[in-house]
Write a structure and sequence with these properties.
The structure is a homodimer. Chain A is of the alpha/beta class. Chain A has two domains: 165 residues, 3-Layer(aba) Sandwich (Rossmann fold); 120 residues, Orthogonal Bundle (N-(1-d-carboxylethyl)-l-norvaline Dehydrogenase, domain 2). In chain A, strands 1, 2, 3, 4, 5, 6, 7, 8 and 9 form a nine-stranded mixed β-sheet that branches. In chain A, α8 packs across α13. The radius of gyration of chain A is 20 Å and the shape is elongated.
Amino acid sequence: MKHDSISVGIIGLGRMGTPMARNLLKAGFPLTVWNRSRAPIEALAAEGARAAGSARQVAAASDVVITMLPDGPDVEAVLLGPDGVLDGVREAARPGLLIIDMSTISPAVTRRLHAEAASRGCRMLDAPVSGGDVGAQAGTLSIMAGGARADFDAAQPVLAAMGRTITYCGPPGSGQLVKACNQIMVAIVLAGVSESLMFAQRAGVAPDVMIPVLQGGLARTQVMELRGARMAAHEFTPGFTASLHRKDLRIVLETAREMGIALPFTRQVAEMLNRLVERGQGDLDNSALFTIVEEMSA
Amino acid sequence: MKHDSISVGIIGLGRMGTPMARNLLKAGFPLTVWNRSRAPIEALAAEGARAAGSARQVAAASDVVITMLPDGPDVEAVLLGPDGVLDGVREAARPGLLIIDMSTISPAVTRRLHAEAASRGCRMLDAPVSGGDVGAQAGTLSIMAGGARADFDAAQPVLAAMGRTITYCGPPGSGQLVKACNQIMVAIVLAGVSESLMFAQRAGVAPDVMIPVLQGGLARTQVMELRGARMAAHEFTPGFTASLHRKDLRIVLETAREMGIALPFTRQVAEMLNRLVERGQGDLDNSALFTIVEEMSA
């Protein structure tokens, strides 16, 4: 399939959505964009995107609509609300609009949205990402998708313009569930890096002595590799903010409660991220968790 | 320096000490061995080692004495006790016996032993390892050493026969401190792997879908790489036992208390390992921590 034969729309032009839109343009997709605030729409229009006036207009102009929004309620509003995507379906360019929600939202909400989309004759994938704004810019995101296998296959050329590792995870909601596992893991590894740095610091062992030893064996983690030295130096420029990680862990813990499972380590990291946000430091990188661990031993 | 010009002794011929002794023999060092029980001495004598009747006799026959024992009290008994290494110093082959304690013990105890050794005219390194029995057999241990730099340099040919990554960490105790950081990290990463596997399992996501996605990004850990699939399959053959990891974390937490620092995540893993041991499962691999996380959601 040639890329100029698939019209793509993207809704949500933030730190992630804007560079993803640029990569779609670069790949040759006719692209329609919309965002609540106007400035990023105009920036992308200057680069060749078509500016829409609403989510509904995006849907009317597109075969595939991508949403990249902060949280579940945002996605619900854009898909189901007035002047939303599902309102635009009857006017859509071709039947069977494919919605790809790349936001990180609750698996329960995404399942409800899959059902709503199906009831209006649309197809849907939940396809959250990891890799942050750096990955979004480089087009190297990891994308984990849930939905019908045929819809995943149809979405391949579009997803390939934005990501490198693109994994079909299973039925509706599976992308969000795997993303939840990812956020659990990153959260707890951050705790581990924080405690080992804390111990080394107080014991008088330099991070540049300790880190290479740990990275040479079973203790090796990608978080230590990418952030260990910066954490030790208290450099917390995001990256991925404490606020967003906290939001993701809220979703994880709600989902865990619905499943009847205890995640004591994840819960403790979530509480620490709450403290960071309450302190007004939610815009720091999530690795600022280290300062909370330090504070506990002050 | 030719290897046959350094006489080496090794005390403690368990799962780690025996394969380390074999690698010393293979490298051409004249080797004297001793162990509390007789069988492993005889096994190594059949392979070319000289059997000693006590730790004291090992010291008398050696330029370098290695200890590889379960815990601090064992090392104290072997070094300071009757018929121990320091008793044998005056009879030693050459002056300035170099003691290399490769056990994982408390940094405070190791500092005391360094001082005792110095007061008898001996040199000492604390040089705990990571890499487990597999690394001991392959001669690929990571070795982290504390003590005088000159003694570390002198020990290089001996250490190189047993390990691959050999790091000088700083003054007496530094090897144990870096090992403590390593055990903190492995403990908390095990908790992260356990919670993400737990979440995936209950959510109906197969480990072979989840694991590669996490390993492709920031969530990547060596514990997941080596043990994730086995944990999901409840295969807990050691490896490194829960009992030994619990012992190491007891040392970490005692040291942290002396330094006035809180390690809440490490403490929680230590409590879970206690439960495993109390259940009579201390001989399982430490990754059986996963079963405690599962039990909390049963």
